[in-house]
Amino acid sequence: MKRLLACSALLALAPAVWAQSSVSAHKELKAIVDEHAQQWKDVSKQVWDYAEMGYHENKSSTLLQQQLKAAGFSIQAGVADEPTGFIASYGSGKPVIAILGEFDALPGLSQKAVPDRDPVVDGAPGHGCGHNLLGAGAALAVVSVKQYMAEHHIAGTLRFYGTPAEEGGSGKVYMVRDGLFKDVDVVLQWHPGNSNTVANGGALAVDSAKFTFHGVAAHAAMSPDRGRSALDAVMLMGTGLEYMREHVPATTRIHYIISKGGAAPNIVPDLAQMDLMARSPFNQTLAGVWARILDVAKGAALMTGTTLEVTDIGSDANIIPNDALAPVAQKNLEEVGGYTMTPDQKAFAIELRKSLNAESIPSLDVTEKVQPLRTYDPNQPSASTDVGDVSWNVPTIGFSTATFVPGVAAHSWQAAASAGMSIGQTGMVIASKALALTAIDLFTTPQLVSDAKADFDKQLAGKTYSSPIPAGQKPLINYRGK
């Protein structure tokens, strides 16, 4: 009886002992992140200087690979037919915990790290979505977790996925298709933003393609009857889409450009092209919208006597939430906390915000706060990401931290300016710590991994993952042009 009572007492103490151990581990891990932070801030600035487009991030990818190899990771380069894609690995066995990193820039957003519009090179790419911070911050997290694992003999496999071409190239989709995540237990990710939040699900599913119409050229005045205008087909497709907008769910987005419209006004255009993207909060809804868009395009071809070719198909899924991982991530982000701007950062922010065209701008002290955990609202504005396809295949949770001046929108020169200076780098370290704490919790608490998988199965009950990208289509290396 005394032995039973003693065992019961030990069991009762176990949660408290684990909690104390967790606090100690977290404190040590945060210190390790701080120890390596300056190195990876410098890396983020180098990637910001390179500002390379999707699938052509050669310098950026090489730099990250070199730094991770020097930190003790093994490197598998050129994965999934992506020249700049790679996987960095440490350890062996289960669990397998992965952290995602991106490093591609956006066209036309070249910008110096100053609070006024001042391109480094007019028309050149720039990091208007902060992916220089994203890749470097994720790498800072894995390097710190690896050091802690080695020092404390923690079993498992830690991976960094270097994922190129997130901005429209669907880089992660090809990685998923090649089975590169099939043995991963949990995926962690983060993205730059202007507040500190846990991202549990969300993002808009997106499909994109080039719609090319082929007609018959002819003299536009002497023999127009012999011509079949591909431009007419593009314009009729656009008209059909505008009428269609009234009859799709309110959260649907359809946007397009005419990328090719003919050679000269006195020649009936024999080739014209529309580049189109459609988005919706849920894959299933978008599939129906996309089918109707294809019908509109076919109808335009029929009306004009042209032929239609649909190529360069891209697609990102919506992000599947994980309600088991979300509270763990929230707890860790709250433990890390936000940051208070230095006087120099505040002066930069005040000057930059003079350029913002917005009805309401949040207070600068939003960087100091961690937003409460919220359920994804499909009626709120959102963007798209190929993280969604990963989340349909592996339990996934994410963070966003205040790397942009509060009030700044992504995909802007203001975001590029923020990502190239200390405001972005300070927010990056917040994300690195939250990622690192969550990763070590997963390595040291098997139940968390089990709970994440159970919720993953629950979230996907009755749903099937598929991508509209054709099975034989290789990554579109020059989707942005060369």
Automatic annotation (TrEMBL):
Q: Hydrolase among the record's keywords?
A: yes
Which keywords does this chain's UniProt record carry? Hydrolase, Signal
Looking up InterPro entries in the UniProt record yields: Amidohydrolase (IPR017439), Aminobenzoyl-glu_utiliz_pB (IPR017145), Bact_exopeptidase_dim_dom (IPR036264), Peptidase_M20 (IPR002933), Peptidase_M20/M20A_hydrolases (IPR052030), Peptidase_M20_dimer (IPR011650)
Recorded hits in Gene3D superfamilies, A to Z, give: 3.30.70.360, Zn peptidases (3.40.630.10)
Q: Give the SUPFAM superfamilies listed for this entry.
A: Bacterial exopeptidase dimerisation domain, Zn-dependent exopeptidases
A single GO cellular-component term from the record reads: cytoplasm
* Keyword Aminoacyl-tRNA synthetase assigned: no
Write the signal peptide boundaries: 1-19
Q: Which GO terms describe its biological process?
A: folic acid catabolic process
Domain Peptidase M20 dimerisation, which positions?
208-298
The record's PANTHER family line, in alphabetical order, gives:
PEPTIDASE M20, XAA-ARG DIPEPTIDASE
Provide the protein name. Aminobenzoyl-glutamate utilization protein B
The organism's lineage is:
Bacteria, Pseudomonadati, Acidobacteriota, Terriglobia, Terriglobales
